[in-house]
Protein: Polyribonucleotide nucleotidyltransferase
Organism: Novosphingobium nitrogenifigens DSM 19370
Amino acid sequence: MFDVKTVSLEWGGKTLTLETGRIARQADGAVLATYGETVVLCAVTAAKSVKEGQDFFPLTVHYQEKFSAAGRIPGGFFKRERGATEKETLVSRLIDRPVRPLFPEGFYNEINVIAQVMSYDGETEPDIVAMIAASAALTISGVPFLGPIGAARVGFKDGEYQLNPNMAQVAEGRLDLVVAATDTAVMMVESEAKELTEDEMLGAVMFAHAESRKVIGAIIELAEKAAKDPWEVDLTDNTADIKAKLKSIVGDDIAAAYKLTNKSERANALNAARDKAKAAFSEESPQTQMVAIKTLKKVESDIVRTAILKDGQRIDGRTVTQVRPIESIVGFLPRTHGSALFTRGETQTICTTTLGTKDAEQMIDGLDGLTYQRFMLHYNFPPYSVGEVGRFGAPGRREIGHGKLAWRALNPVLPSKEDFPYTIRVLSDVTESNGSSSMATVCGGCLSLMDAGVPILRPVSGIAMGLILEGDDFTVLSDILGDEDHLGDMDFKVAGTSEGITSLQMDIKVAGITEEIFRTALAQAKGGRAHILGEMTRALGEVRTELSAHAPRIETISIDKSKIREVIGTGGKVIREIVATTGAKVDIDDEGVIKISSADVAQIEAAKKWILGIVEEPEVGKVYNGKVVNIVDFGAFVNFMGGRDGLVHVSEMKNERVEKPTDVVKEGQEVKVKVLEIDNRGKVRLSMRLVDQETGAEIEDTRAPREPREPRGDRGGDRRGPKPGDKGDRGPRRNDRGPRRERSDRDEGPAPDHMPAFLKSDD
């Protein structure tokens, strides 16, 4: 019934299997990829015709994680997969970025790529498997895809590169790198690193490329067995005459416009040239007009690229290695915990840092279960930042991707949770944009963290590099403008400290770049990063030693795990009382680590003292401050050490005889007490008479010492006597203990349950 085709490859210590022909047979291409016990199904469908008037390539990639893949039911009210999570959005972009440039110019049929995680083994990350499955499905679908691509994840530990490490191995190492590549060149790079050198990073990319080639071989083998007939697509370029006409009409106007250094002036001049071109083709057919508009972009690209390659002349007049002017201001906003305004040329962002407690951590429900993230970075790109009218609201895929890139750049230099027990949120609001607002976010975000007093390892700067490639000739551009990004061949972003790279991202618009171009870009970016770091230190050279007055303070203490129950209390009664009374926020984990937070140091100290009073054991002979909580006929119960109660017998209130406890104390009174005894049941006997109630100094005991009491042990048989029905001779209950003493008026009535053991005795 099924015509199943399969290929397998031993790769990175596991078997990678690609299968087609069994599932989703009505799609143009469908591949089930299995690596370890992680399984991803990817199906590709393509529209057979192009919508009238369409002049762009509508490729859409959707990556989805099924909770059932990990044997889980989604949390929350809706028990089904909902909108895309941040991870799903990022992986969708990870697949889209290397695939999109491999479709020929002029191909505008809509294509849908859907990758779904069907099984997850808790070890093998599904993103690489999804990328491979998508490449294989496109390759066998028959659409004009100039692939296939391979993909690999690389770790780095103890000087050795690791192929497809699991997340635990990644956390232990210094690198998390994902590379997608064709057989001849690298197409896409995404990474987070712990200050790797340029040579170490380049070695990781080349290692990943070599391993990707093995996957490409397997995909080609599958295509030889199962590929559909290639589409017949007419992509003949017959725009030469239109291009020549446009150059003659507006070529000089475009060249003059790109010599204007101000973005607004340049945009106005370009719009005037475009209007002039449209007018020249106003009498032509709608199809010809559409082609002319598309061709005009090629004319603009040719003019800019030629000027850079031949003359080294950039749009704004800079040299190829020159960085735009930088201005940084910290402490920009008065009430935030940390803030910075970072401006580089016509790119600007306001970055703020907010510090919070543990309950502000982001809860993430994914295939690995519930996890918590203490560092968040959110990037916003409002339409006014580019002088346009547009949608303003929830972040799109681009904003999520740019925010994650900046997150990866800053995360490696953050202090550990133990050293700095705060939840950290950095917010980047881009207010102007003309090239690499994500790298401005890295720089501004770093300054805002330093302004907030977050003890980062070292400052981080970032720079975006561009590429103009014609045949074997190429030029790498430092700190690219928006137009250089649009008209160039590469977007290459590098962030790092003075000691090494913390993040690298590369997207390419041509069929890959070589090792030589990669090495040149890394070296040039290093110089640019160093320059930007120098400019940043002018605003703030080191981390502030004090937190903002508006930031919460957090103090951490550790207690024995056996005491956690006492601090929390029945149903949380005790911890709620601590919070309500002191005003501090208290968090306690299963290991006995307690975090006390408040903007008021006095509240923290009060809560800390209370908790320590609960968990500490009282010491015999030590003096404590206490409060009278209950008065009875024979004395008063005093609360001390926050959660301890002890009895001050009436005889221990003063050195002289006291008739009634109320003659000496009243409920709520603050007193000083000395611990006399702690019995084997934890009952505490206290004394007020041995402590100066004004100074707290101990007073010498002038009374004669008490006779030692009879040990509480075996008193000759069962104290309770025979059980009901036992007719044996019980004998005298008191044996030889002597006659019962007469009780005074104060001794009348049964002994209360909370009375210490030594007072319940008849001795």
Q: What stands out?
A: The first strand starts at residue 5 and ends at 11. DSSP finds 15 helices and 29 strands in the chain. The two ends are 95 Å apart (CA to CA).
